[in-house]
Design a protein that fits this description.
single chain, 300 residues, alpha+beta, Beta Polymerase, domain 2, 2 domains, four-stranded mixed β-sheet, three-stranded antiparallel β-sheet, 13 helices, 56% helix, disordered C terminus
């Protein structure tokens, strides 16, 4: 049984507290312990989580999230995590029979990864969402799905509850096998969903998950940098024109020559230089309005 140290991230616009992935927590805590700042690309992780479409749909108002937080069952989460670690070596074994030369990663995502597990007697109990990712052909995907059925059914029986009217039966229906090319296609839409779900690996000796995350976070940060830089440029030009009009009016009133345009250009260059410094990461990070966090040890 592993112990995962996961930090909570408060999405205040949704009223919920999400557990960050263990590797994201480790990176943040180690950096802060050494007196450093969170890397710029990592700030994109909080933006992806905050803007997650699933959160916006399920928790349109903060009160909806607060209500769910009152129902979170940590013991049930630990139980589902045990099942995840129990089935992982079986999945890896079956993949070894299909393509032993190609590495894969087995990951947990969804409510279990985010720490938003509902009790098993809830009207809509939480499921165990798992996925296998790697360079996987369509033929291999189908073979692995079929080969894993006995293992998934066994776990299904262990994690299931006695069917009752009006109560959904929890399943391993959310067991996906995905090729990395698909995850990284369509502007990283599927990969962003994994990041938003605080996805972490139960098996990933080749670092496949973190490679995917690194590419996505870098692209997200660069895109936001481009948009924000464009905004500041436009704002600077607008202020420059406004100030110049005011200066011309002042010069006419006082019958004096206006300030040389070169001075305005120099001011703009200074503004542009200041914006292009590493302080940008603070600007992006602050837009999420991230509040205080606390470390939480989760037995997994």
């Amino acid at each position: 049984m592993r112990e995962l140290a996961q930090q909570q991230y408060w999405v205040h616009t949704r009223g919920i507290q999400i557990l960050l992935a263990p590797h994201a927590t480790s990176m943040a805590s180690d950096t802060v312990a050494l007196g450093g700042e969170i890397p710029p690309y990592e700030s994109a992780r909080f933006r992806i989580i905050t803007n997650d479409h699933i959160l916006k749909t399920r928790f349109p108002n903060p009160d909806d999230g607060v209500k769910l937080m009152g129902q979170v069952d940590t013991e049930r989460r630990e139980e589902l995590l045990r099942y995840a670690y129990e089935i992982t070596p079986r999945i890896v074994e079956e993949w070894g029979k299909i393509n032993p030369n190609e590495p894969i990663a087995v990951v947990v995502y969804g409510s279990v990864a985010k720490g938003l597990v509902k009790p098993k007697d809830h009207n809509d109990p939480s499921d165990l969402d798992m996925s296998v990712i790697g360079t996987i052909t369509e033929k291999e995907r189908r073979e692995l799905l079929e080969a894993s059925i006995p293992h998934r059914e066994r776990i299904q029986q262990q994690m299931g509850i006695t069917p009752q009217e009006g109560i959904k039966y929890p399943t391993l229906s959310c067991f996906k096998v995905r090729d990395t090319k698909i995850l990284l296609s369509d502007n990283y839409s599927l990969a962003k969903k994994l990041i938003a779900s605080s996805t972490f690996a139960t098996y990933d000796p080749s670092g496949i998950l973190q490679e995917i995350e690194s590419e996505v976070l870098e692209a997200e940060w660069n895109e936001q940098y481009r948009k924000t830089r464009s905004f500041y440029k436009k704002s600077a030009l607008t202020r420059s024109f406004d100030n110049m009009e005011k200066e011309i009016s002042r010069a006419k009133r006082n019958n004096t020559p206006p300030i040389e345009p070169t001075k305005k250009a120099e001011n703009y260059r200074n503004l542009q230089f200041e914006f292009e410094t590493p302080a940008l990461e603070t600007i992006i990070f602050d837009t999420t309005e991230r509040r205080s966090t606390s470390d939480e040890k989760i037995a997994a």
